[in-house]
Amino acid sequence: QVQLVESGGGLVQAGGSLRVSCAASGRTFSNYVMGWFRQVPGKEREFVAAISRIGGNTAYADSVKGRFTISRDNAKNTLYLQMNGLKPEDTAVYYCAAGGGGYSQRGYDYWGQGTQVTVSS
Question: What gap in Å lies between CA 58 and CA 1, rounded to an integer?
């Protein structure tokens, strides 16, 4: 089992920046591909970004490419998502996930409880 706890969400103005974090505990953090997903009410949870086990490879949704950066610190068992140039359409609950990876929720076995990010216009 892996327990994931997100933090760092909040309210920010359009064009601003925010960093959300995900602290992991339980099994070895570096065994898992990590991902960020987001969800707004009434919509499917969507892929945002993913990072390989040792951080050498990353992938992003087209909607956030060039603005968001995913990173991980395996010594601290922590995943990060740096969000710059935020837009109102980035408003969502952001979830971190651990598993085998990919662009689909089905590729991840463990999920955090989510953290709300709200971008005002």
Answer: 24
Residue 30 phi/psi, 5-degree rounding, is -70, -5
What's the pLDDT score for residue 1? 87
Mean of the per-residue pLDDT values for the chain? Answer: 97
3-state SS, residue 67? coil
Indicate whether 12 pLDDT > 90.
yes
What CA–CA distance (Å, rounded) separates 99 from 82?
21
Cβ(59)–Cβ(34) under 8 Å? Answer: no
**Token couple for 42:** 């009434």
Count CB atoms within 10 A of the CB of residue 5. 13
Give the DSSP H or E segment for 120.
strand 115-120
pLDDT grade, residue 71 (50/70/90)? very high
Rounded CA separation 3/118 (Å): 25
| Alpha-carbon span 101 to 33, nearest angstrom | 5
